[in-house]
Design goal:
The complex is a heterodimer. Chain A contains six helices and eight strands, in the order ββαααβββαβαββα. Chain A is of the alpha+beta class. In chain A, strand 7 and strand 8 form a beta hairpin. Chain B has one domain: Gcn5-related N-acetyltransferase (GNAT) (Aminopeptidase). Classes of the chains: A alpha+beta, B alpha+beta. At the A-B interface, helix 5 and strand 7 of A face strand 7 and helix 5 of B.
Chain lengths: 182, 181
C-alpha cells in the first residue's frame, strides 16, 4: 500500500529501510518519549523490520508500518503506522515518528491526516486512537490539531528508560473526522 | 473578601492600596521585555490600571487578581482571567488566562501554579467552555507555564507588531486532565 499526500509519500517498510530506521531509532531526541528504546545493535533493527515484513503477509492485515518519504527529494523523513484492533470494534491505533531534521513543518500532521484518511475511508473504521507521553508537547499538538480528543490520562503506563511515564490517550471518531472535512 | 488559595499563594482582588507594589512591578523593564518594552513610568498609570481592573470586576465579573506569596506575605504580581472585549487574533469576547510576576519570584513555578488555579476557577465556578492563553513567541518561560497547565498551541498571531503564540484549552480537555482517578 502506498499513500501520497501534498508533500509526502507513505510506503510500506521494506528491507531497504533498515539503515534509515536504525539511524532514526538511535537518536536520543526520537527516543525521548518512546518506549522502543535505542537499539543496541543493527541486529535489533533487523529483527524489528523482519517482523514488520512478516506482518505484511498476514491475512487479514493487522499491522501497517510506513516509511514517510519526501516526494521531492525522496529522502526518508520518518515512520508511521496503523495497528488494527478487534474486527468487530472497527478501531485502530496510529503512531508516528519523525527525524528531528523534519520537525516543526507540519509533516507529522500531514502523515496523521493520511493515516486517518486510510483508516476511515479505506478501512471504514469507526474509531482511531493515538497516545503520547504527557510531556510530549509536540505530539500533543499534532494530535489536537488533527482533531483528536483527549480521553484518558493513564498513570505510569509507558516504560521509558527505566521509569514509568504517564500517557495521554486520544481518539477521533468517524463522525468527528467527517465533520472536519466540511 | 473573596480569595483563592493555592499551595503557596493567596489570590485576591486588587485594592487601590496595591498601587505601590503594582507600580514597582510594572516599572521594572524586565517585566516588559516580552510585552512591548514600555514599562510604567508613573504611579498614576498604575493607579489607573488598578481602577480599570476593579471596574472589570464589576462589568465582567472577573479581572486579574493580586497574587501574594504565603510564606513572605509579599505581593508577587497579578494572575487570573480577563474577559477580552477588544478584538485579538480575530477573536473577541473570550477569556484569557495570564500572569505577570515580579522578577524576584520568577523560576519557582508560581506562574504555573496560578494558571492551574485559574483554569479550575474558570471551568468550575465560571463554567467557561474554553480559555485562551497568549505569549510572545520568544517568551519560553511563559509558554512552558501555559503548556504545563494544559494549554496547547494553536497558531501564531501578531499583537502590536510582535509575533505571539495563541494557546487554548477546552473544558473537555481540562476535565480529563483533572479527573480524580
Amino acid at each position: 500500500m502506498e499513500i501520497s499526500t501534498l508533500r509526502l509519500l507513505l510506503k510500506e517498510v521494506s528491507s531497504d529501510d533498515i539503515s534509515f530506521i536504525h539511524t532514526l531509532n538511535s537518536l536520543p531526541e526520537v527516543d525521548q518519549y518512546n518506549t522502543l528504546g535505542i537499539p543496541e545493535n543493527i541486529e535489533v533493527t533487523n529483527t524489528l523490520v523482519s517482523e514488520i515484513i512478516v506482518a505484511q503477509t498476514v491475512i487479514p492485515r493487522v499491522r501497517y508500518v510506513f516509511v514517510i518519504v519526501d516526494q521531492i527529494s525522496n529522502d526518508c523523513m520518518g515512520v508511521c503506522g496503523l495497528v488494527m484492533g478487534k474486527p468487530n470494534y472497527r478501531n485502530a491505533e496510529i503512531w508516528y515518528k519523525l527525524h528531528p531534521n523534519y520537525w516543526g513543518k507540519g509533516f507529522a500532521s500531514e502523515a496523521v491526516q493520511a493515516l486517518l484518511d486510510v483508516g476511515f475511508n479505506t478501512f471504514q473504521l469507526h474509531r482511531i486512537e493515538a497516545g503520547c507521553a504527557t510531556e510530549n508537547i509536540a505530539s500533543i499538538r499534532v494530535l489536537e490539531k488533527s482533531g483528536f480528543i483527549l480521553e484518558a490520562h493513564t498513570r505510569k503506563l509507558l516504560p521509558i528508560r527505566g521509569e514509568w511515564v504517564d500517557n495521554f490517550g486520544y481518539s477521533i471518531l468517524e463522525e468527528e473526522f467527517a465533520a472536519r472535512l466540511k | 473578601m473573596k480569595i483563592i488559595e493555592t499551595e503557596r499563594l493567596i489570590l485576591r482582588e486588587f485594592l487601590p492600596s496595591d498601587d505601590i507594589d503594582f507600580f514597582r512591578m510594572d516599572a521594572d523593564s524586565r517585566v516588559h521585555r516580552y510585552l512591548g518594552n514600555t514599562p510604567t513610568t508613573s504611579i498614576e498609570q498604575s493607579r489607573e490600571i488598578i481602577a480599570n481592573i476593579r471596574q472589570q470586576y464589576v462589568t465582567n465579573g472577573i479581572g486579574r487578581w493580586a497574587t501574594i506569596e504565603k510564606s513572605s506575605g509579599q505581593f508577587i504580581g497579578w494572575s487570573g482571567l480577563k474577559f477580552i472585549t477588544e478584538e485579538e487574533n480575530n477573536h473577541v469576547h473570550y477569556y484569557d488566562v495570564g500572569y505577570r510576576l515580579v522578577p524576584a519570584y520568577w523560576g519557582k513555578g508560581y506562574a504555573t501554579e496560578t494558571c492551574k488555579a485559574w483554569l479550575e476557577h474558570g471551568f468550575t465556578t465560571m463554567d467557561l467552555k474554553e480559555i485562551i492563553g497568549c505569549a510572545h513567541e520568544e517568551n519560553i518561560a511563559s509558554r512552558r507555564a501555559l503548556e504545563k497547565s494544559g494549554l496547547t498551541f494553536v497558531e501564531k498571531f501578531i499583537w502590536k507588531d510582535i509575533t505571539c503564540d495563541w494557546l487554548k484549552i477546552t473544558r473537555e480537555k481540562w476535565e480529563v486532565l483533572n479527573r480524580k482517578v
